[in-house]
């Protein structure tokens, strides 16, 4: 198994005084106050498609890869590469078919509910953290359920609305990219006592959230070898519950990752698992595109964020950068800076996650959801007059980004 660019894009919460993970503790259950003062920050780190694009539409897709339907485009903008060398033409690859071709693409979108078994220091079960209560609310959220957005004449899904907004002046009116969600057999990940810290509810019971060591989490999710079925993705791939034409969501319950560099907490990431091809797919490299997203219960991480904030962030970024700029060519953009964030990749959620009003409240199916506002392609392409809907740089809230990033040198130095 080769996993390229894993954790290239993550949604992170910076938490003050986060408890240490990796040592035996008698007080494994810590107070919710450890999550107080959290701030958003980021680091760089379909059955198959129901409509398979025609050959004329697929000729611009990344060749030699067995994965999602995708299209490739370019834009012109002054900038520099990672070495500081001036560069003018930039290439992107996005999910679906090219907007100028129009038509509807439907993508398989399995949702895999993943619960946690938290073991005590003696190896016995300390607590089972169940994801089940969050599955239907996720399915009914604007990520998968239709909502009336300004970029579509009829209710549609969040990611389709974002794509239509950024290619509004270029797309054919009938251009849509839909997710077809389905619930996959639930899984459970077992965590040893030294790999997590549980956050108590207000009444002292377990668990409001779990802080998990990132290395232990990755080892439990990604297969170590092509025939490894001991991990979540290994099982899903070998059983054909997911395919290379799927966008797979691993849905966890209030599961926040930590590592010595990022601290706490990673609420989601998108990447792909790479497996070798064989005669059945003409030897093409298999890319299983996926995201880990934690359901976010309200009140844990500050006002205005919760429920599907992380999932919407990762889905929007998957549509705009499905292969996480892994080849160093597609989806690399001129260096940009937004708040403390400096990047050279079109990670649309990262631009806004640390800004005010980063979420866009949506009343749908009896709930108030909080999908994230995201940056649109014209912002990365440095268009002085945006070609997006209403000349906007952000969506759904078109007022979050009103100006381009100042021109940046490599690493924003």
Low-confidence spans: 1-18, 23-27, 40-60
Number of helices: 7
Number of domains: 1
Q: State which percent range the strand residues make up.
A: 25-35%
The percent of residues in helical segments reads 10-25%
Radius of gyration: 20 Å
Between the first and last Cα atoms, what is the distance in angstroms? 36 Å
The major sheet is characterized as: 14 strands, mixed
Find the structural class using helix and strand composition: mainly beta
Helix-strand sequence: EEEHEEEEEHHEEEEHHEEEEHEEEEEHE
The total count of strands amounts to 22
The shape is globular
Mean pLDDT over the residues: 87
Keywords:
disordered N terminus; single chain; 413 residues; two-stranded antiparallel sheet; globular; mainly beta
Outline:
The protein is mainly beta and 413 residues long. It contains 7 helices and 22 strands.
Write structural notes for this entry.
- With 413 residues, this protein is mainly β.
- It has one domain.
- The protein is 12% helix and 34% strand.
- The protein is built from seven helices and 22 strands.
- Helix 3 crosses helix 6.
- It starts with 8 loop residues before the first strand and ends in an 18-residue tail after the last strand.
- The N terminus is likely disordered.
Write the layout of secondary structure elements.
Blueprint: E1 9-14, E2 29-30, E3 39-41, H1 55-58, E4 65-66, E5 70-80, E6 86-95, E7 104-119, E8 125-129, H2 135-139, H3 158-166, E9 176-183, E10 187-191, E11 196-200, E12 206-213, H4 214-221, H5 232-238, E13 247-253, E14 255-259, E15 263-275, E16 285-295, H6 309-320, E17 332-338, E18 341-345, E19 362-364, E20 367-369, E21 374-375, H7 377-380, E22 394-395
Parallel strand pairs: 2-11, 4-16, 7-9, 7-10, 7-13, 12-14, 13-16
Antiparallel strand pairs: 1-3, 1-15, 5-6, 7-8, 11-12, 14-15, 15-16, 17-18, 19-20, 21-22
Helix pairs in contact: 3-6
């Amino acid at each position: 198994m080769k996993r390229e660019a894993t954790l290239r894009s993550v949604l992170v919460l910076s938490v003050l005084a986060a408890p240490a993970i990796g040592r035996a503790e008698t007080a494994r259950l810590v107070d919710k106050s450890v999550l107080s003062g959290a701030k958003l920050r980021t680091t760089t780190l379909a059955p198959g498609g129901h409509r398979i694009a025609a050959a004329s539409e697929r000729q611009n897709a990344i060749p030699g890869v067995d994965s999602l339907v995708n299209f490739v485009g370019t834009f012109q903008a002054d900038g520099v590469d990672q070495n500081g060398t001036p560069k003018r033409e930039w290439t992107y690859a996005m999910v679906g078919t090219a907007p100028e071709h129009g038509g509807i693409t439907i993508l398989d979108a399995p949702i895999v509910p993943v619960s946690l078994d938290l073991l005590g220091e003696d190896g016995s079960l300390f607590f089972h953290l169940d994801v089940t209560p969050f599955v239907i609310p996720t399915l009914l959220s604007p990520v998968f359920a239709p909502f009336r957005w300004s970029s579509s004449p009829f209710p549609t899904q969040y990611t389709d609305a974002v794509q239509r907004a950024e290619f509004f002046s270029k797309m054919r009116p009938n251009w849509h990219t839909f997710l077809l969600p389905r619930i996959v057999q639930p899984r459970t990940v077992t965590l040893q006592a030294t790999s997590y810290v549980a956050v108590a509810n207000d009444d002292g019971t377990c668990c409001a959230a779990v802080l998990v060591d990132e290395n232990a989490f990755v080892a439990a999710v990604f297969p170590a070898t092509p025939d490894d079925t001991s991990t979540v993705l290994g099982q899903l791939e070998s059983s054909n519950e997911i395919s290379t034409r799927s966008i797979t969501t691993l849905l966890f319950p209030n599961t926040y990752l930590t590592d010595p560099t990022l601290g706490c907490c990673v609420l989601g990431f998108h990447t792909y698992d790479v497996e070798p091809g064989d005669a059945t797919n003409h030897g093409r490299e298999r890319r299983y595109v996926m995201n880990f997203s934690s359901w976010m219960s309200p009140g844990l991480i500050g006002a205005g964020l919760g429920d599907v904030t992380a999932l919407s962030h990762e889905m929007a970024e998957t549509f705009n950068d499905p292969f996480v700029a892994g080849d160093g060519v597609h989806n690399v953009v001129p260096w940009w800076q937004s708040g403390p964030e400096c990047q050279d990749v079109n990670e649309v959620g990262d631009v806004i996650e640390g800004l005010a009003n980063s979420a866009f409240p949506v009343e749908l199916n009896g709930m108030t959801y909080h999908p994230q506002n995201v940056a649109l392609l014209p912002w990365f392409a440095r268009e002085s007059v945006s070609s997006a809907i209403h000349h906007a740089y952000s969506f759904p809230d078109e007022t979050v980004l009103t100006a381009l990033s100042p021109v940046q040198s490599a690493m924003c130095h």
